[in-house]
Specification:
The protein is an alpha+beta fold and 175 residues long. It has one domain. The protein is 33% helix and 15% strand. The chain contains eight helices and seven strands, in the order αββααααβββαααββ. The strands form three sheets. Strands 5-6-7 form a three-stranded antiparallel beta sheet. It has a two-stranded antiparallel ribbon with strand order 1-2. A two-stranded antiparallel sheet has the order 3-4. Strand 3 and strand 4 form a beta hairpin. The longest helix has 11 residues. It starts with 11 loop residues before the first helix and ends with a strand.
């Protein structure tokens, strides 16, 4: 079975947001072989949501919830219809704290998962300066983080890709 396509989360299986499962979806009542494995911010808890109910918006509507916080995208000036797509029709991602969906070039970025250590070591110049400024880190803090960084660990560094200019954008998350 082919998963729905998510523009802003192109490989939710690789990122851990969607996993194989034989559970029945609490929204559509069907067992489709996959379930959402990250957070939905809603008043009601559900055991299993299928990717199709995320993609068509029925999960967010039925649960009056969202899969990620839209405030960072709104603050970045992203169009309301894009904020709606990311928050209501795109799988969120597992994070230590509440995730922050990154934006670049006036659009939401595509979430690619945990950054590799090689990607972070290669980060330099204005890209590194921008990350350090946004995350309020000194260069010495960054070097210390890199010395012990492991993808999937704490701290987490998430990799996003700008859909317009293809720039890599990173965000940090600590326990």
């Amino acid at each position: 079975m082919t998963l729905p396509t998510f523009r802003y989360h192109p490989d939710p299986i690789a990122t851990g947001a969607i996993e194989a499962s034989d559970r029945t979806c609490a929204i559509c009542g069907r067992a489709r072989g996959f379930r959402y494995a990250a957070t939905i911010y809603a008043a009601s808890e559900v055991d299993s949501i299928c990717p199709w109910c995320i993609a068509d918006g029925s999960a967010a509507r039925k649960l009056d919830g969202q899969f990620s916080d839209g405030d960072p995208l709104i603050a970045a000036g992203v169009a309301p219809e894009v904020v709606d797509e990311v928050t209501h029709r795109t799988p969120g991602y597992p994070s230590w704290q509440q995730e922050i969906w990154m934006a670049h070039c006036g659009d939401a970025c595509a979430f690619l998962g945990d950054a590799s250590k090689e990607e972070l070591v290669a980060l330099a110049g204005p890209d590194l300066d921008g990350l350090l400024e946004r995350e309020l880190l000194r260069d010495s803090d960054w070097r210390g983080l890199l010395s012990s960084y492991v993808p999937g660990g704490d701290p987490a560094v998430y990799h996003f890709r700008c859909l317009r200019c293809q720039a890599s954008v990173f965000s940090l998350d600590f326990t």
